[in-house]
Design goal:
The structure holds two protein chains of two kinds. Chain A is α/β, with parallel strands linked by helices. Helix content of chain A is 67%, strand content 8%. Chain A contains 14 helices and five strands. In chain A, helix 2 packs parallel to helix 9. Chain B has two domains: 219 residues, P-loop containing nucleotide triphosphate hydrolases (Rossmann fold, 3-Layer(aba) Sandwich); 63 residues, Alpha-Beta Plaits (2-Layer Sandwich). In chain B, a hairpin with a 2-residue loop joins strand 4 and strand 5. The longest helix of chain B is centred in the middle third of the chain and has 16 residues. The two termini of chain B are 41 Å apart. Classes of the chains: A alpha/beta, B alpha/beta.
Chain lengths: 368, 310
């Protein structure tokens, strides 16, 4: 056992000597959380919009004024034709165009179906979704106020062709995803590269000819990353909760418990990758392309799994991060209990077992 | 007590290459007697490292048997690993750890303290001490090898396997390393060492020439030299390259090859040397010196390698 701890100690010493990597490990979650939490938010602020006013009525004027006065929108220009509006949209000068029908007011007052068109630049589906919601709310409110009747508000068509993302994403949703990604990065990538480096630098040649059991070498390599991961889980949860205001409605112990299980799973994947690769580049390639990309793309971290083609949905079932991220979301945001996420836990435990078996079967006590 | 600490019999090893299986070792057999320095001498790519890895239980031969201290390198690898010290050809310690940290680490994973076998490593350790806080990666070539040797000796092994310990090391440090090996032998440690430098082979008690995966000859260095069948002549002149070409063109010359700034020549029969001298004086000109020279190990190696090629 003394030998094992000698190895763990050595590992810590080497990691601490590589100050840049350690800084990277701790700065990365902070930066990602802040990026996703603040910079990449879907909050609307002073989005520019243009108007094509065919009705030139008091109602349309008051709607325009109301929109412009809100903190969400800023009037760019009143245009004379739809064509101009298209150009502005295409160039990205305005995010939205409001089109008023010529018989807007008379129709609205009579209770007929009046049309106010809202055309949106839906390149960013999330943003356009929010924009259209805000706009609808302001327009409806203003119509109701003007016509004096809440229920005869004109029907408003929102014309947004590229509108395909029905899920409203927010900072809340990103936190579990970012944690899933970061833990995976540290455990799988760093562990596999770390173990393969020993092979590549020839250290393994000397280590194999020593009384330390090869299995201990591997486990000892994983220990520091496990401890680092625990710290990073704590840091991420703390930041998410205090800085981004993400609630933890379920039990904190469960958040940590499931994170540790996921860390173990990611570590076994890292160890398994290290048995497949002989160079650090290969290890990095396998970790990133075979494991990391699916984590980002298919885990539901960025794109909702429900909207993927059937085949990708099937593939996403075997992405480890998917099970972690969905469980973490349920615990943090919905206050799910252990029973509710038991299925996710069972699947992650099974995956851990499967990957360890592969790693064990592939492990060599010799050089080739 | 066994006479041979290592026996290698009929070992072959193939690597997977682009064009099928490439032989690295072909039917290699030799024995290393207990308590001596055994040199595996051959050029780069001869199969020295493969031989070391097989003896060190890091690789399995495709056929043949290896025993270390009577134990099978295949079956009893765990036990063998307990009493051998191995220093790979490539620097294999942690470059981002200091000298002291490397030593402490290896002492701990071998379950000993640095002080336990101080008698063995004291000489080397005292040379390393001034640099003990320096990172291993920043040491000079010679110091790196001394540190690696120190780590390989830390648990007082019975058998020391050193793969090219003097490659990339300056002549003074090379001499020092050989002196250390002599000291190890006097402490009862058997040493198997490889080197591409023929002149170093004289430091060995026994040696084997290896080339292209085959053992060419085994014996003590002096025996091998004594068994050289012919007189060697050293020919020196102002234009060594032209001289070599000329000598190779003579029908009575058996072999000629450059050796530093001179040529080493063997003739087909002893009487032919007179002809050679005469032709040199006639066609190449004055200033050519021809003298009798005692064969060196390199002469032996070249002769053996040529015979093997034919």
């Amino acid at each position: 056992m003394g030998k094992f701890f000698a190895f763990v100690g050595k590992e810590f010493r080497q990691i601490s000597r590589d100050k840049r990597s350690v800084a990277f490990l701790f700065i990365l979650p902070i930066v990602l959380l802040i990026l996703f939490g603040f910079a990449i938010t879907n909050d609307i602020k002073e989005s520019s919009f243009a108007v094509v006013d065919n009705s030139k009525s008091p109602l349309s004027h008051s709607i325009i004024e109301r929109l412009n006065a809100s903190e969400y929108f800023k009037l760019y220009d009143v245009l004379s034709s739809r064509n101009e509006a298209d150009t502005l949209l295409r160039r990205g000068i305005v995010k939205a165009v409001v089109v008023f029908e010529s018989k807007l007011e008379s129709g609205a007052l009579r209770g007929d179906k009046a049309q106010i068109g809202v055309i949106l630049d839906a390149c960013d589906p999330n943003e356009s979704y929010n924009l259209s919601n805000y706009m609808k709310a302001i327009i409806s409110h203003e119509c109701a106020r003007k016509t004096g009747c809440r229920f005869s508000a004109p029907r408003i068509d929102v014309a947004s062709n590229m509108f395909y993302n029905p899920q409203l994403k927010s900072a809340y949703d990103f936190v579990p995803g970012v944690m899933g990604l970061i833990l995976f990065l540290i455990c799988t990538l760093m562990t596999s590269v770390g173990i393969v480096r020993e092979k590549e630098m020839g250290n393994m040649e000397v280590l194999l000819i020593s009384p330390i059991r090869p299995a201990y070498i591997i486990i000892a390599k994983a220990v520091p990353y496990f401890i680092l991961s625990v710290l990073i889980v704590a840091l991420s949860v703390f930041l998410a909760n205090s800085l981004l205001g993400v609630p933890i409605r379920g039990s904190v112990a469960l958040v940590f418990g499931i994170s540790l299980l996921y860390t173990l799973l990611a570590l076994t994947i890292g160890i398994m990758v290290s048995t497949l690769a002989n160079t650090q580049q290969t290890a990095m390639f396998i970790s990133t392309s075979v494991f990391m990309l699916p984590t980002v793309l298919l885990s539901g971290m960025v794109f909702p799994v429900e909207n993927m083609p059937k085949i990708l949905q099937c593939i996403s079932e075997i992405v480890p991060a998917k099970w972690y991220i969905s469980a973490l979301r349920d615990i943090m945001l919905k206050g799910a209990t252990l029973r509710f996420v038991a299925g996710n836990i069972a699947i992650m435990a099974l995956m851990t077992l499967a990957f360890s078996l592969v790693a064990l079967a592939r492990f060599k006590t010799r050089l080739e | 007590m066994l006479n041979n600490i290592i026996t290698v019999s009929g070992v072959s090893k193939f690597y997977a290459g682009a064009s099928g299986r490439v032989p690295a070792l072909v039917d290699v057999s030799f024995d290393v007697p207990q308590g001596c320095i055994f040199g595996l001498i051959g050029p780069d790519g001869a199969g020295k490292t493969t031989t070391f890895r097989i003896i060190a239980t890091l690789m399995l031969p495709d056929c043949g048997e290896v025993t270390v201290s009577g134990l099978s390198a295949k079956r009893d690898y765990r036990e063998i690993r307990r009493f051998i010290g191995y220093m790979p050809g490539r620097f294999s310690l942690y470059q981002d750890l200091s000298v002291q940290e490397n030593l402490e680490f290896f002492a701990r994973i071998f379950g000993v303290k640095i002080g336990d076998n101080l008698g063995l490593i004291e000489g080397i350790y005292s040379q390393l001490e001034p640099f003990k806080n320096r990172l291993a990666g920043r040491l000079s070539g010679g110091m790196k090898q001394k540190l690696a040797l120190c780590c390989a000796l830390i648990h007082c092994p019975r058998l020391l396997l050193l793969d090219e310990p003097t490659t990339g090391v300056d002549p003074v440090s090379r001499q020092e390393l050989w002196e250390i090996l002599g000291a190890m032998r006097s402490k009862g440690i058997s040493v198997l060492v490889s080197t591409p430098y023929m002149d170093e082979a004289m430091n060995c008690d026994k040696m084997a020439f290896i080339s292209k995966g085959k053992i060419l000859k085994t014996g003590s260095p002096q025996n091998i030299i004594d068994s050289f069948p012919q007189q060697v002549y050293r020919v020196r002149g102002p234009d060594a390259f032209r001289l070599l070409k000329f000598l190779r063109g003579l029908p009575c010359v058996r072999s000629a090859y450059s050796f530093g700034d001179s040529c080493h020549v063997c003739v087909k029969s002893t009487s032919d040397i007179g002809d050679v001298k005469r032709l040199l004086a006639r066609d190449v000109g004055p200033g050519i010196k021809v003298e009798e020279f005692s064969a060196s190990l390199e002469d032996c190696f070249i002769r053996l390698a040529q015979n093997d090629d034919n």
